[in-house]
Amino acid sequence: MDDVDPPRRAPFGSSLLVALGWYATVAAAVFVGLVGVPANPNRDCSAAFACLTPQEGFALAAIVGAPVLTAMLLTTLAITAPLARRVPSPVLAGTLSVSVTLGLAVLAGGFWQAAR
């Protein structure tokens, strides 16, 4: 008679897909932003990596940033599981997990800069 519905939980898979969607959206936006900027015809190529095309620059950033991105993805994976248990919406759980991961990455970057 007194049936109480258990609290609704967000599916872990859907929450993780939302989080991965945020990463894909940001990567696509950065790529489109870099490709859409016209090249300066009078650029000086004396500095290292000064004359890379936007596609080459994006590829270089992807290679250098791969360890950071891997760490962020693993952190997002670890954070999404507890959030999906507590938050009823997969969109909210995925977005919160990426937000927390981004905050931790900024904090780690600040510590790294301070230690140098």
Automatic annotation (TrEMBL):
Spans through the membrane: 12-37, 57-79, 91-112
Keyword Transmembrane: yes
UniProt keyword list: Membrane, Transmembrane, Transmembrane helix
Name used for this protein in its record: Vitamin K epoxide reductase family protein
Organism expressing this protein natively: Micromonospora carbonacea
